[in-house]
Design goal:
Length: 206
Amino acid sequence: MDFAALPPLDRIERTVAAVNARGIHAEFVETKEAALDRLKSLIPEGCVVMTGASVTLQQIGFEAILISGKHPWRNFKADLLAEKDPVKQAAMRRQGTLAEFYLGSVNALAETGELVFASGSGSQLPAYAYSSRNVIWIAGAQRITPTLDDALRRIREYVLPLEDARMKSVGNAAGSRIGRILIIENEPAYLRRNLTLILVNQVLGF
């Protein structure tokens, strides 16, 4: 299985429909520029925004916007990184999972609608699973796999080696390892959360 290949349009459409049927709003755009425009349109002015580590958010240009400060939101990660006390910063990381908008990506998703996330520390997973009221994921459509089992294979056989190499290339000698895996199969309506997946018809991230 080629985990880096974009699937044909009919598979993408089936995936979008399957994700929507699980209580998560999914939509499809053609380009990373369209994804960036759509993402910006979903976040009201003045909201607190927190981001998980995401190559995709860098590639679409959203991280650069946050770093520039030229935006109408409060960038919680900037506040977190400005705090140099390790104990206070750890507390702020937990507080960040309650941000009004938490943004990131998904490591793999099945055509049957399950979303799969892998993490070393698990720091972003509480927001994805429960604590943030508004979660937006941007993902290249190459992350679609036929089944949930294939999605788990994608994480271990494809994503992890690439992330490990990336971490070592930026000076982290320990590399990367999977500490936790989250599978979202359904979002209950009674939680009154807004989960949005924007799939892009381009290879983005891993």
